[in-house]
Amino acid sequence: MDTESESGDDLPAGREWPAHKERRRWPREPATQKEHRSDIPPALAPLRFSTQDLPLKEQFQAWRAHMAPLVDVHLPDGKSPDDGFLAEQIGWRLGDVLIIQQRAQAYSFIRDQTMLRSSPIDHWNVGLLRSGRAWTEVNRQVTEAGPGAVFFGSLGYPHRGRMIDSAAVLVFLPYELLAANASLLQGANNTVLSGSLAELLTSYLTGLEANLSNVTAGEVPRLVQTISDMVVACAASSTRPDTSQIQAGMGMMERAHRYVHLNLHSDDLTPDVMCRALGISRTRLYQLFEASGGVFNYIRKRRLLQAYADLSNPADNRQISEIAEAAGFNAAANFTRAFSHEFGLSPRDIRKTVATERPVVPATLPACSQGTTIGDWLVPAH
Questions:
Q1: Percent of the chain with pLDDT over 70
Q2: Using an 8 Å Cβ cutoff, are 156 and 179 in contact?
Q3: Which helix (H) or strand (E) holds 337?
Q4: What is the distance between the alpha carbons of residues 348 and 49, in angstroms, rounded to a whole number?
Q5: Can you name the residues that pair with 151 across neighbouring β-strands?
Q6: How many Cβ atoms from other residues are within 10 Å of residue 180's Cβ?
Q7: Comparing C-alpha atoms, which of 273, 270, 276, 277 is closest to residue 298?
Q8: Three-class secondary structure of residue 110 per DSSP
Q9: Where are the alpha helices (DSSP H) in 182-331?
């Protein structure tokens, strides 16, 4: 299952990858690097995690702590933490989308209901395996993915699985980014995407991966939109007709986010109404949105993001005041102040750029600060 290479980075003396594993480390360097204009600096700063420089006895615990916000990981039966555990990740944030290049030795993982209740993470996940194999179980249905396979799943559902020694590219997309297609995507949860569309997605991610260090700020919005469109198209061709079992396992966080999306412009989108619709207490609702700064802050930000999309849409001819009202702001001045604080550009600035071919980009993209866990990479503090 694994590939071999004659070239690669050497690990420190006395430390090496298993003999049957390729030694090359992420990121892969393309044969030729395209030249990028010196007057347009790269927008992406890589986030890095590696166990290779840690003492053998500390390597797996470091990996487990790093992955804890996402899944609880365990070593295979018969494997001791004292033997060491080599793993590394390089993360790249394209707006709210996270791309991770990962290499790791064999491990198992689980994300249960307890974790879902307290976690702000309910992203969609696309995994492209370069080597190794992975098995994932959702509602007693197991999906197997091998080298070259494109796996699709949701972190908003409980699941478990395992991977042998592997290398992969993982793409995490926030629930809100694809919320309009949530029902369709739920039907494709825990599937291996196949067909010509999956091949196109694989080719696109492979090309993008080779040039992540050269991506500029102006390219980020279009890259995110392209990835999103391709993922939805692939999932649509793989959707199962019966999604009742998947719906039953939906995490409460995802249910709450989906409710906000479907009722985003309703005057009745209040905590009391949400509690009744979701069948949870007010305390539980506040716990769900604590990591997002509270339920009101979450709703406000989602409405501002929708307003940003509306203002960027050349086909939307509504007055700014109408878009402000739809976003829940009765006073245009309050809308402009909140919008400018969130994106670094005023609503009028956005409208002025609509007629141009250039993508609309906030003045400041989310910072790519070094996080201590994968959770910091997925849900960075703003």
A1: 80
A2: no
A3: helix 332-343
A4: 41
A5: 127, 192
A6: 13
A7: 270
A8: strand
A9: 182-187, 196-210, 220-236, 244-248, 252-262, 271-278, 282-288, 295-312, 320-326
- C-beta neighbour count of 7 within 10 angstroms: 7
- pLDDT per residue over 238-252, tens digit each? 765 444 444 444 567
pLDDT > 60? residue 71: yes
The H or E element spanning position 135 is strand 134-138
| Phi, psi (degrees; rounded to nearest 5) at 150 | -110, 115
Non-local (6+) Cβ contacts of 364 within 8 A are 344
CB 56 within 8 A of CB 82: yes
Residues facing 273 on adjacent strands: none
Which pairing describes strands 124-131 and 87-94: parallel, antiparallel, or unpaired?
Answer: unpaired
CA distance 105 to 84: 10
Beta strand pairing status for 72-74 and 107-111? antiparallel
| Cα–Cα distance for residue pair 136/145, rounded to 1 Å | 9
pLDDT single digits (tens) 15-47: 565 655 555 555 554 544 445 555 566 778 899
Token representation of residue 51:
């166990």
Please check whether residue 339 is in contact with residue 306, taking contact to mean a CB–CB distance below 8 angstroms: no
Pairing mode of beta strands 141-145, 134-138: antiparallel
Q: Which domains does the chain have, with CATH numbers?
A: 47-243 (2.60.120.10), 263-353 (1.10.10.60)
Q: How far apart are CA 288 and CA 272, in angstroms?
A: 14
| Chain mean position to CA 231 | 12
